[in-house]
Amino acid sequence: MPIKIPKLLPAREILERENIFVMDEDRAITQDIRPLNILILNLMPEKEKTEAHLLRLLGNTPLQVNISFLKTASHESKNTSSLHLDQFYTTFAEIKHRKFDGMIITGAPIELLAFEEVDYWKELTNIMDWTKDNVTSTLHICWGAQAALYHHFNITKYELPKKCTGVFWHHIDDQSEKLLRGFDDVYLAPHSRNTDIFIEQLQANPTVKLLSSSEEAGPFIMSANNGKQIMITGHLEYDASTLAEEYRRDLEKGLNILPLHYFPNDDPSKSPTNKWRSHAHLLFSNWLNYYVYQETPFEWD
């Protein structure tokens, strides 16, 4: 089944070139099924790239999915045109009366700030509190995962001595979790961050389960409250070229931080390949099926 997105969203052309099945509102209303309503709070600066990353994965399941994009009202994006935001995004005040089957809260390149120093922190905590009663399952990515762990469970972060960037091997810590059903015993996933969470605090918290981790990159996938909150510290949604683009941006800032295990022979002049795509699709499919579709009510009260 397809993913339903606004007719003029730029990501549509990218997805159709990749043979991802998409439909617009005109065709969707002819189908007599109950679609899943997914809300995406996009905190990344280059919002159109993040839209394509996430829609690619949400659109490759047997379920029809309606997508709504959410922006912060307390922070003005400098990297995405106001026209794009006005056309495709809404604010929390406009949707807080609604119920959503699933939600994604993305990362943001602000991890070196204390959470309370982020200008939209109060708005974000209001949204995260709202998800407890109005969203069946919320998926938090990278900084969004650290924010959720801090706000919901008081698990704090710390600055790493060196940026964690690259593609790392991960293993399964909890074989019984449906989110990882079908995963290989070991698999690759990208990371790109300057902070990490305190593993001691995570292990001491009985509510949060560590599902998968990496010896090099640390805790990766966590779940709480039977999957109502899912936290992922890395970026399975990334394209093959995303870390290379971040590497070049770092170079422009005078930072030569080569992503580990990413470029062929660690040579940044060579094009990297995507070695995590299948597990990215599997994780999002499992999330939509087991934690959203199987758990959400057909009609919200």
TrEMBL record:
<dbReference type="GO" id="GO:0019281">
    <property type="term" value="P:L-methionine biosynthetic process from homoserine via O-succinyl-L-homoserine and cystathionine"/>
</dbReference>
<feature type="active site" description="Acyl-thioester intermediate">
    <location>
        <position position="142"/>
    </location>
</feature>
<dbReference type="InterPro" id="IPR033752">
    <property type="entry name" value="MetA_family"/>
</dbReference>
<dbReference type="InterPro" id="IPR029062">
    <property type="entry name" value="Class_I_gatase-like"/>
</dbReference>
<protein>
    <recommendedName>
        <fullName>Homoserine O-acetyltransferase</fullName>
        <ecNumber>2.3.1.31</ecNumber>
    </recommendedName>
</protein>
<feature type="active site" description="Proton acceptor">
    <location>
        <position position="235"/>
    </location>
</feature>
<dbReference type="Pfam" id="PF04204">
    <property type="entry name" value="HTS"/>
</dbReference>
<comment type="function">
    <text>Transfers an acetyl group from acetyl-CoA to L-homoserine, forming acetyl-L-homoserine.</text>
</comment>
<keyword id="KW-0486">Methionine biosynthesis</keyword>
<keyword id="KW-0028">Amino-acid biosynthesis</keyword>
<dbReference type="InterPro" id="IPR005697">
    <property type="entry name" value="HST_MetA"/>
</dbReference>
<keyword id="KW-0012">Acyltransferase</keyword>
<comment type="similarity">
    <text>Belongs to the MetA family.</text>
</comment>
<comment type="pathway">
    <text>Amino-acid biosynthesis; L-methionine biosynthesis via de novo pathway; O-acetyl-L-homoserine from L-homoserine: step 1/1.</text>
</comment>
<feature type="binding site">
    <location>
        <position position="163"/>
    </location>
    <ligand>
        <name>substrate</name>
    </ligand>
</feature>
<keyword id="KW-0963">Cytoplasm</keyword>
<feature type="active site">
    <location>
        <position position="237"/>
    </location>
</feature>
<feature type="binding site">
    <location>
        <position position="192"/>
    </location>
    <ligand>
        <name>substrate</name>
    </ligand>
</feature>
<keyword id="KW-0808">Transferase</keyword>
<dbReference type="GO" id="GO:0005737">
    <property type="term" value="C:cytoplasm"/>
</dbReference>
<dbReference type="GO" id="GO:0004414">
    <property type="term" value="F:homoserine O-acetyltransferase activity"/>
</dbReference>
<dbReference type="GO" id="GO:0008899">
    <property type="term" value="F:homoserine O-succinyltransferase activity"/>
</dbReference>
<feature type="site" description="Important for substrate specificity">
    <location>
        <position position="192"/>
    </location>
</feature>
<feature type="binding site">
    <location>
        <position position="249"/>
    </location>
    <ligand>
        <name>substrate</name>
    </ligand>
</feature>
<feature type="site" description="Important for acyl-CoA specificity">
    <location>
        <position position="111"/>
    </location>
</feature>
